[in-house]
Amino acid sequence: SPPRPGGVGGTSEVVVINPNLESVDIRLDLFDQNGSPLTATLNGVSNSTFQAKIPAGGTAVFSELDSGGKRRF
Q: How far apart are CA 23 and CA 19, in angstroms?
């Protein structure tokens, strides 16, 4: 994220690994410190809930993208 007033800023990335021999469906829900849904833009989508199907032995990465559409990490 771009720096915020007062010099506070940051970015996040969530990586989910599926070590199983079968694919799995996952759901990532984001909440603020008060327990309310937190909207974030991950993989170019703004939402508070994200879903993915992870293939056997695969990974899913949820992260912020830079202005060029590339992951920040």
A: 9
Dihedral (Cα; 20, 26, 31, 72), 10-degree rounding: 80
Give pLDDT tens digits for 30-73: 999 999 999 999 998 999 999 999 999 999 999 987 777 776 66
Look at the pTM and tell me if it is higher than 0.85: no
Q: Whose CA is closest to 63, among 38, 55, 53, 50?
A: 50
> Residue 7: phi, psi to the nearest 5?
80, 5
Q: First vs last Cα of the chain: how many Å apart?
A: 12
Query: Tokens at residue 13, please?
Result: 């990335």
